[in-house]
């Protein structure tokens, strides 16, 4: 017979608590090797169950049991309560319930993933709600990872920052296929935050990346530095920083034709996983 957790929506909290920020929680899950594809549901479950609070003990359930920690894990089936109780059946995670209240969330994550493996996401009562919001949480989760891993750009002071729809419309008018626009807008978002004048931090090979699509001056354009460049776009890098995005789009197309979408780290790490969920139809 399958055993299911009884979860509650209200809980008392201990006096001394630690509430994680979403960014901090997502980063810790990522460090603990939680797959990127699972991050949205774990974020959503933790928010609904405990508001990201590591020390939450749930209000007593109808059978007398309690739920512990950031994922509200039941002391009836999954952890061992401090005192022997009539309702305790099995310590599925082989852990003391008090250990799930630690600021170090390693054991809580390990136990929650074990539960998910045994019973699936339906072990948590809020799974249906989270499934409906999965894209929102997915997009948010990868944004957090993107920030936490330091993949950011330095933009010049005077810049034009486009909205996603503005970029989609301008690229469409420049002849870009509408079917490619979700991927292009995703890459531009993660590479430059849609900033036409973004200049990347100096890379390990002493090169810089320029513009909306962060094109390298080592291979694709020539900068005002003394570094040699293959300049395969036949462009001066400064021309990729103007409010007129024509040159930046033309060069980005050259990069794609020669190397494909995988030329961009943003595509490899993020965009390839979500472009099937994105659309630009609302932009036209």
TrEMBL record:
<keyword id="KW-0812">Transmembrane</keyword>
<feature type="signal peptide">
    <location>
        <begin position="1"/>
        <end position="17"/>
    </location>
</feature>
<dbReference type="InterPro" id="IPR019799">
    <property type="entry name" value="Glyco_hydro_22_CS"/>
</dbReference>
<comment type="similarity">
    <text>Belongs to the glycosyl hydrolase 22 family.</text>
</comment>
<feature type="domain" description="Glycosyl hydrolases family 22 (GH22)">
    <location>
        <begin position="93"/>
        <end position="111"/>
    </location>
</feature>
<protein>
    <recommendedName>
        <fullName>Glycosyl hydrolases family 22 (GH22) domain-containing protein</fullName>
    </recommendedName>
</protein>
<keyword id="KW-1133">Transmembrane helix</keyword>
<dbReference type="InterPro" id="IPR001916">
    <property type="entry name" value="Glyco_hydro_22"/>
</dbReference>
<dbReference type="InterPro" id="IPR023346">
    <property type="entry name" value="Lysozyme-like_dom_sf"/>
</dbReference>
<keyword id="KW-1015">Disulfide bond</keyword>
<keyword id="KW-0732">Signal</keyword>
<keyword id="KW-0472">Membrane</keyword>
<dbReference type="InterPro" id="IPR000974">
    <property type="entry name" value="Glyco_hydro_22_lys"/>
</dbReference>
<feature type="transmembrane region" description="Helical">
    <location>
        <begin position="137"/>
        <end position="157"/>
    </location>
</feature>
<dbReference type="Pfam" id="PF00062">
    <property type="entry name" value="Lys"/>
</dbReference>
<feature type="domain" description="Glycosyl hydrolases family 22 (GH22)">
    <location>
        <begin position="233"/>
        <end position="251"/>
    </location>
</feature>
<dbReference type="GO" id="GO:0003796">
    <property type="term" value="F:lysozyme activity"/>
</dbReference>
């Amino acid at each position: 017979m399958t055993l299911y957790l009884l979860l509650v929506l209200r809980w008392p909290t201990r006096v001394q608590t630690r509430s994680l920020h979403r960014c901090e929680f997502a980063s810790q899950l990522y460090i603990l090797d939680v797959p990127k594809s699972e991050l949205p549901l774990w974020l959503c479950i933790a928010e609904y169950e405990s508001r990201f609070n590591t020390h939450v003990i749930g209000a007593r359930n109808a059978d007398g049991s309690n739920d512990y920690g950031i994922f509200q894990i039941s002391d009836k089936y999954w952890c061992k309560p401090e005192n022997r109780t009539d309702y305790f059946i099995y310590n599925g995670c082989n852990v003391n319930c008090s250990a799930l209240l630690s600021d170090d969330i390693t054991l809580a994550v390990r136990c929650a993933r074990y539960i998910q493996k045994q019973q699936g996401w339906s072990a948590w009562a809020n799974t249906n709600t989270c499934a409906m919001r999965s894209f929102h949480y997915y997009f948010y989760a990868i944004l957090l990872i993107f920030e936490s891993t330091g993949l950011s750009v330095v933009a010049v002071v005077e810049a034009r920052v486009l909205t996603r729809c503005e970029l989609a419309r301008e690229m469409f008018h420049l002849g870009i296929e509408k079917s490619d626009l979700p991927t292009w807008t995703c890459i531009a978002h993660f590479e430059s935050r849609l900033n036409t004048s973004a200049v990347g931090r100096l890379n390990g090979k002493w090169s810089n990346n320029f513009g909306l699509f962060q094109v390298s001056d080592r291979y694709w354009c020539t900068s005002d530095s003394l570094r040699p460049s293959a300049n395969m776009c036949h462009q001066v890098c400064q021309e990729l920083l103007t409010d007129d995005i024509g040159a930046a789009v033309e060069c980005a197309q050259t990069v794609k034709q020669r190397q494909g979408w995988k030329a961009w780290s943003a595509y490899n790490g993020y965009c390839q996983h979500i472009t099937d969920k994105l659309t630009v139809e609302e932009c036209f």
